[in-house]
């Protein structure tokens, strides 16, 4: 079902300012999307994604994203196991959906070519 952890996400209040800050620390931008950036971290195989949004301690702003080769099948498998899932969304580059563990922790699945 899952191939790997695709990325770890952090919510930031201003994507441009945050991107500049991370770049000053040596992170490099590998992808720019509307309201988010994917950053390479040294030689790590797992990038850091920063997403613009409301930053609050109550928000589950840090969450893993799992990559799948077949997002529809993965969605149906999770749904079939009684896992709470959101609808599949697309930002024009990626398809993704959230799912939640029994403690209501947010996890996400993505597919991209």
UniProtKB/TrEMBL annotation:
Pfam families listed in its UniProt record: Glyoxalase
Xref: SUPFAM superfamilies: Glyoxalase/Bleomycin resistance protein/Dihydroxybiphenyl dioxygenase (SSF54593)
Domain VOC: 4-112
UniProt protein name: VOC family protein
Taxonomy of the source species: Bacteria, Bacillati, Bacillota, Bacilli, Bacillales
